[in-house]
């Protein structure tokens, strides 16, 4: 198949007519699929149902230290849960606070705390004038939304195959004290699926930001979410920061949302003692403690890191074929046409597609018209503004495998139709 850009106007017209006919036929099938959010499928949720049998009215409800988990107490979380979440994030248990079910909630709370009360003895962010936050893009829309909500100016940092462009990060943070943080998904990034290189992690650990209260928000949401036998390996930022005496710089986040249940998992954050004390002071007014019965359930079900890896292997068995189905369809229908590039991640929840510039919104709209909902075009950029209108995040985990192929085929059809329209506009 000829590259679209090399086609004559006449060839494009006839291709467009052919694709439109196929599109109308697809529409008539009345598909109703959702590839918008990184949600586990029902079969994945079923994997953790055994966890609900861990506790019943006969259980003694005690933690290993004898703590009655039905009662108030243990605001940092059960010691064994702190240890497990610490292992997941790469820090010692004493540097971990276990929260409720959502790590995004803990990120929001951390920004909120810094806004109103400041971090580690510095002035509250809200008293420091107009502030900025670095947003590597394409990135996670809900990260960007948190800092937009709090009134930050969002600064786009290009995402490379090694992670955020560290030349840009070093230059900006080194010279501008109004920059207070950066969002990072260091392993199997949302949506590009890349893992930060060792050099990127080392450069993060060695940052010398102009702002003493600048923080790296290290959201390791996909730290054990492998799709292959050759997993990416992420260097431990905590260890690297400690080597540089920079342990106040990073804030770590993770959850079991995509290990057990997104609606009822366990979230945690990790940080230096100094940072944690600031946050403890904040949480102390907010809650008398997290849900320790859910922690008990998780400990009984997952047990340890081996248990987590075994559980992730089961997830992989269910979702890797979905990723493969999408990739195969893309390869068959889009490769060599010069109108799309896509990622082939070793883990995580997303495939990131760059369609022809100026075609992302139209592709998403066409998919919607024919019954497949995708993440809004632009969502992967600050202010939902993709300067090239090119990036689309595809989340293959939620629809059943049988329907994934139909959804991916429709995507390819719509991306091609949008490209034809765009090229004809220019012709
Ligand atoms: N961080 C990233 C990078 C995510 O992709 C998601 C979910 N899509 C979250 C955080 C949400 O995590 P939680 O369920 O723990 O709030």
UniProtKB/TrEMBL annotation:
<dbReference type="GO" id="GO:0004069">
    <property type="term" value="F:L-aspartate:2-oxoglutarate aminotransferase activity"/>
</dbReference>
<dbReference type="InterPro" id="IPR015424">
    <property type="entry name" value="PyrdxlP-dep_Trfase"/>
</dbReference>
<keyword id="KW-0032">Aminotransferase</keyword>
<keyword id="KW-0808">Transferase</keyword>
<dbReference type="Pfam" id="PF12897">
    <property type="entry name" value="Asp_aminotransf"/>
</dbReference>
<dbReference type="InterPro" id="IPR024551">
    <property type="entry name" value="AspAT_Ic"/>
</dbReference>
<dbReference type="InterPro" id="IPR015421">
    <property type="entry name" value="PyrdxlP-dep_Trfase_major"/>
</dbReference>
<protein>
    <submittedName>
        <fullName>Aminotransferase class I/II-fold pyridoxal phosphate-dependent enzyme</fullName>
    </submittedName>
</protein>
<dbReference type="InterPro" id="IPR015422">
    <property type="entry name" value="PyrdxlP-dep_Trfase_small"/>
</dbReference>
């Amino acid at each position: 198949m000829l590259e679209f850009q090399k086609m004559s106007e006449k060839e494009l017209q006839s291709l467009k007519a052919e694709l439109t006919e196929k599109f109308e036929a697809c529409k008539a099938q009345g598909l109703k699929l959702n590839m918008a959010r990184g949600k586990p499928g029902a079969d994945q949720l079923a994997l953790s149902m055994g966890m609900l049998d861990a506790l019943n009215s006969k259980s003694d409800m005690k933690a290993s230290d004898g703590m009655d988990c039905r009662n108030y107490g243990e605001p940092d979380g059960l010691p064994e849960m702190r240890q497990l979440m610490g292992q997941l994030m790469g820090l010692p248990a004493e540097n971990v606070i276990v929260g409720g079910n959502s790590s995004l909630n803990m990120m929001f709370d951390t920004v909120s705390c810094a806004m109103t009360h400041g971090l580690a003895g510095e002035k509250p962010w809200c008293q420091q004038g107009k502030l900025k936050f670095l947003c590597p893009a394409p990135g996670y829309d809900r990260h960007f939304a948190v800092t937009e909500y709090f009134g930050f100016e969002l600064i786009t940092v290009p995402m490379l195959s090694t992670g955020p462009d560290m030349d840009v990060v070093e230059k900006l943070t080194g010279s501008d004290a109004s920059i207070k943080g950066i969002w990072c998904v260091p392993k199997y990034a949302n949506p590009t699926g890349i893992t930060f290189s060792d050099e990127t992690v080392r450069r993060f650990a060695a940052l010398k930001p102009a702002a003493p209260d600048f923080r790296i928000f290290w959201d390791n949401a996909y730290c054990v979410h492998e799709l292959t036998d050759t997993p990416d390996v992420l260097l431990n930022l905590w260890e690297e920061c400690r080597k540089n005496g920079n342990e106040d710089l990073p804030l770590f986040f993770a959850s079991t949302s995509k290990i057990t249940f997104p609606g009822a998992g366990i979230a945690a954050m990790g940080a230096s003692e100094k940072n944690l004390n600031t946050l403890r002071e904040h949480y102390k007014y907010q809650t008398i403690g997290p849900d320790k019965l859910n922690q008990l359930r998780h400990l009984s079900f997952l047990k340890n890191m081996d248990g987590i890896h075994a559980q992730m292997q089961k997830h992989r068995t269910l979702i890797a074929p979905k990723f493969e189905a999408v990739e195969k369809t893309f390869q068959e229908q889009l490769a060599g046409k010069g109108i799309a590039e896509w990622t082939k991640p070793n883990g995580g929840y997303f495939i990131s597609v760059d369609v022809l510039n100026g075609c992302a919104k139209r592709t998403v709209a066409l998919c919607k018209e024919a019954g497949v909902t995708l993440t809004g075009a632009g969502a992967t950029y600050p202010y939902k503004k993709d300067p090239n209108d090119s990036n689309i995040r595809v989340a293959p985990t939620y629809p059943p495998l049988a329907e994934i192929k139909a959804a991916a085929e429709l995507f390819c059809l719509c991306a091609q139709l949008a490209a034809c329209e765009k090229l004809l506009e220019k012709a």
